[in-house]
Amino acid sequence: MEPTSKGEKKTISRRRLIGYAWITAGAIVVGELIFGTLAFLWPRRKQEKGEKIFLAGKATDFKVGEVVYFRKEKTFLQRSMGGFLAFSAVCPHLRCIVNWNEAGRKFECPCHGAKFNLNGEVLEGPPPRALDLFKLQIVDEKIVIDMTKPIERKGFDPSQLVNG
């Protein structure tokens, strides 16, 4: 072979080009594995959706023994003889949304079969505690629910009820 002059371009062999392509593809795969593993291990940021404080309605609109679900806020409002109770519809075990079973008069989690009574206490299943409470106030005959800080609890206490 003759030495190349300055005007000629250096060519790359097909074998070397395919080798570079395999090295690049391998580097991309390793990079994705590393990034995916770190993303899995890194904790997620909690993204708060919806309003933090909302107006549920007039206190006189709710009947004694009635449970009302607010879908957007993921909140249940329950009225008993002693007053009102507002709690989260999110199960404390796996963060699933619990459903109200009117016939059985209890809350049921579709993910793992947990059941909660009318006051949100665990009847059966793996949840470590009762459903979280939300601060509730009655202002000018209207029910205001504050969801900024859910209150974790072990069970029901009559002092948790808000008279209305």
Give structural attributes:
single chain; Rieske Iron-sulfur Protein; alpha+beta; 4-stranded antiparallel sheet; elongated; 3-stranded antiparallel sheet; 1 helix; 2 domains; 164 residues
Summarize the structure.
With 164 residues, the chain is α+β, with helices and mostly antiparallel strands.
CATH architectural designation of the largest domain: 3-layer Sandwich
* Class of secondary structure makeup: alpha+beta
Largest sheet: 4 strands, antiparallel
Count of helical regions: 1
Low-confidence stretches: none
Would you list the SSEs in sequence order as H and E?
HEEEEEEEEEE
DSSP helix fraction? 10-25%
Strand content: 25-35%
Topology overview:
Elements: H1 14-41, E1 53-58, E2 67-70, E3 75-80, E4 83-88, E5 99-101, E6 106-108, E7 115-116, E8 122-124, E9 133-139, E10 142-151
Antiparallel strand pairs: 1-10, 2-3, 3-4, 5-6, 6-7, 7-8, 9-10
Write structural notes for this entry.
This protein is an alpha+beta fold and 164 residues long. It folds into two domains: 31 residues; 108 residues, 3-layer Sandwich (Rieske Iron-sulfur Protein). 17% of the residues lie in helices and 30% in strands. It has one helix and ten strands. The strands form three sheets. It has a four-stranded antiparallel beta sheet, with no helix packed on it. The protein is elongated, with a radius of gyration of 29 Å.
